Amino acid sequence: MSKTFSKDSFKKICDQLAKGDQDLLHIIRAYGYPPMWTRPNSFATLVHIILEQQVSLASALASLKKLQEKTKGLSPRKVLRLNDEEMRACYVSRQKTGYIRGLAEAILKKKLLLENLETLSDDEVRAELTSLKGIGNWTADVYLMFVLQRADVFPAGDLAAVNALKRIKHLAPVTPKEEVVAVAAQWQPYRTVASMILWHFYLSSPSRGKNNMAPVSEK
To answer: Which of 73, 77, 203, 216 has the fewest CB atoms lying closer than 10 Å?
Structure first.
């Protein structure tokens, strides 16, 4: 079973990371501990993560709330009852509508059992999720980090985390992904918590805000 973290261990892990990395220590001293972001293991959570692809957090949340209001309880069956026009009225693009419907069908047909993912390794969870159209590594990373609290995930496709890392490590904007991943490797086996410190820095820095944190696109 992959290593996880909890509310009881989160700040201790932050302290351990800060002890070994002055840059992370400076972030915590300047802005405090990061929030321990968590989400329930549910269909609605995966829909939310899909909606967050390539848009601001505020836009994704507005769309999620519209869907929740429209369905009066977001579920696979209720989503599949919505037509294209109703999905558009909830600010869901045609492409993401297809992704969400595919996810709903996979759950209803028991091709994806969310509760079973809790017992799988990180690689197995990633393989299960990315087998679905519209779910790529970024969505799988967020699910592993926020839902399953897996401790050692670095979201290499997340612009906010990557840009924060480049900034604190004084890396060039054009630094290759492989080099960024190599730098993040120093935080093993707690790259998830280190990433949360990076997100905290990104969101707390001047001219940044929670509405600006957006990932790159998925497949």
So the answer is: 73
